[in-house]
Amino acid sequence: MEPKKRENEFYSLWVLIAQTKDAMSEARHKKIQKFTTNERRAVLSCVQYHGGEATPTQISRYLVRKLNSVSEILKRMELEGLIKKSSGVNKRKVIVKLTRKGCRLFEQSYENEVDKEMLSVLNKKERQSLAAYLKDLRKKAFLELGMPISKIPFSSRPVSAGASRKPGRTRLMRAK
């Protein structure tokens, strides 16, 4: 006798969110793999979000990943010439900056058409609603993890130190 199947609305939504995220990630990776991986793209975005330089801890929070995992990603990116790590003012803190190659890679992946193509199935109002719903879910997840939402940055547009957050004012910062 087969067990009775019942619909679990919450589980079904979770599966739908996970499948959508994974499928969109794969589609993006397939089309922009010539640029970078999604994890490298996220690191480059985080460094730009923080004004052109970030600590591994800031990157870890931004990616919602463990610090040792981020350290491994950063090692590989430094070997590829995408970032440069240096000591901070107090010599104990590591600072991550983008190299010229890293800036070029960020620009290519940031200005790609893949995201626009996939998300254009929704109209502007639907995209705004989706963003609001996802922010609410993200906030709840961070609270469940004991992570204050104020420590987790989010921006659709990276900015450099001193630049405004107005459209068209993005300026890439790189290591010298």
Fold and architecture overview:
This protein is mainly alpha-helical and 176 residues long. The protein is built from seven helices and three strands; from the N terminus they run ααβααββααα. The chain is globular. About 7% of the residues have low confidence.
Which short descriptors sum up this protein?
about 180 residues; mainly alpha; Arc Repressor Mutant, subunit A; 3-stranded antiparallel beta sheet; 7 helices; about 55% helix; about 5% strand; globular
CATH topology assignment of one domain: Arc Repressor Mutant, subunit A
N→C terminal distance: 69 Å
Question: What's the β-strand tally?
Answer: 3
CATH architecture of one domain: Orthogonal Bundle
> Structural class per helix/strand content?
mainly alpha
Instruction: Tell me about the largest β-sheet.
Output: 3 strands, antiparallel
Overall pLDDT level: 81
How are helices and strands ordered from N to C?
HHEHHEEHHH
Radius of gyration: 18 Å
> Strand order, biggest sheet?
1-3-2
Shape: globular
Q: What's the CATH class of one domain, please?
A: Mainly Alpha
Tally of separate helices: 7
CATH superfamily of one domain, by name, is Winged helix-like DNA-binding domain superfamily/Winged helix DNA-binding domain
Binned, the helix content reads 40-55%
Strand proportion: 5-15%
List unreliable stretches of 5+ residues: 160-171
